[in-house]
Each structure stands twice: as structure tokens, then as C-alpha cells.
Amino acid sequence: MSEARAAIEKLKIELTGLGVTDTDEVGDGATLSVWIGLVVRFRDGFFRWQEGAVKRRHLGTDPVGCAIRVARRYAELQADIPPWWEELSRELRGDSAQDYP
Q: By three-state DSSP, how is residue 19 classified?
């Protein structure tokens, strides 16, 4: 297992423990999609997470601290869901997505 894949796996476990359960690994072993544009990558010993143009980084040796920061932002996004999200989710997922996100 690569260093990046191991770091992302640890972060995913920590996020799950904080209630962020709908994360998806992008497939490159180094990227975790958390929610609507909130993405975490592991590179050069750092978790680098971004949402849109806002970029942050956190030491790769501290997946717990990074998970706390990412989970906090996730909760903020969940509290203020963008108005376009419902329409987009219905379009992409069909009528079953009405009660989602």
C-alpha cells in the first residue's frame, strides 16, 4: 500500500468516526471526495484539502486533526446547502435523490 493510500484510508476512518460517512475515494489512491467540491488529497507528506478556490493543508502525520477540520467544514456546508444542489442531484440521480443530500 502506498503512503498516500494509507494516509487517505486513515483519514477516511477518522472522518467516519466523526459522522462523515459518505466520502468516496476518487480512484487514484490519493484523493478523497467529501462533498460538493470538498476534496482532500495527500501529497508530499500533507493532506491538502480544498473547496472551490479555498485551499488548506494539514500535516500528513495528523489524520485526526485534519479530519476534525474537514468534518467541521462539511457540517457548515450541510447547514447551508447551495440552492442549485437539489436540482443537480435530481438530474444526476433521478427522483430518488429528492431527500438527499
A: coil
* Residue bearing cell 479555498: 54
State the Cα–Cα distance between residues 99 and 35, nearest whole angstrom: 16
Phi-psi region of 48 (alpha: psi -120 to 50; beta: other; left: phi over 0): beta
Question: What's the rounded Cα separation, in Å, for the pair 65 and 51?
Answer: 18
Which residues make beta-bridge pairs with 50?
Answer: 39, 55
Q: Which three cell numbers stand for residue 53?
A: 478556490
pLDDT digits (tens, 9 = 90+) for 9-41: 999 999 999 999 989 888 888 999 998 778 999
Please enumerate in sequence order all residues whose Cβ is within 8 A of that of 34, keeping only pairs 6 or more positions apart, or say none.
15, 20, 23, 40, 49, 70, 74
Distance CA 74, CA 49 (A): 12
Element (H, E) at 74: helix 63-79
